[in-house]
Design goal:
Distance between the termini: 22 Å
Helix content: 55-70%
Oligomer: single chain
Largest sheet: none
Strand content: under 5%
Shape: globular
Order of helices and strands: HHHHHHH
Number of strands: 0
Amino acid sequence: AEGGMTATGVIMGTAEYMSPEQGSGDVVDVRSDLYSFGVMLFRMLAGQLPFRADSATGLIFKHRYEPVPRIEQYCPGIPQPLASIVSRLLEKSPESRYQNCFDVVRDLQRVQRQLNAGQDEETQPMLPPERAARRFFDGVTARWKAIRFAFWSWLSRTAPAISSRVQATDQQ
């Protein structure tokens, strides 16, 4: 890699969340990110990662070759439609996974509607997946901007010399 850019075939990332194709140095696309999202969702629901190993190489091997444990064994009582979403996100083959985030959002909304169907409280109508995803990412962007502003404000107050150097570097 030159000039801070990554090269084809170079494995980069956090091994715990790495897709099978990324761990092999193969070409990756959005489906690799969806696999990583599946790992994150598995961890959020089950309270642990799907794979554990003593080394990054061991984790990469498990993501590539070992079957993903069923989330139901760590999270009894999980609604089957939600377990199916997690399983599909964690498919070894990118072709078997969700192909885009809009389909994931659509299926998550479907699960939410099913879970809310038996409740008496009013539920808001579901947004189309594209609008729901855009609203989510707009919220993330706004939070990131607020965090960034707070950080720069803090840095300029506590370490003005460093803040000036960083800002000068950014302007180059």
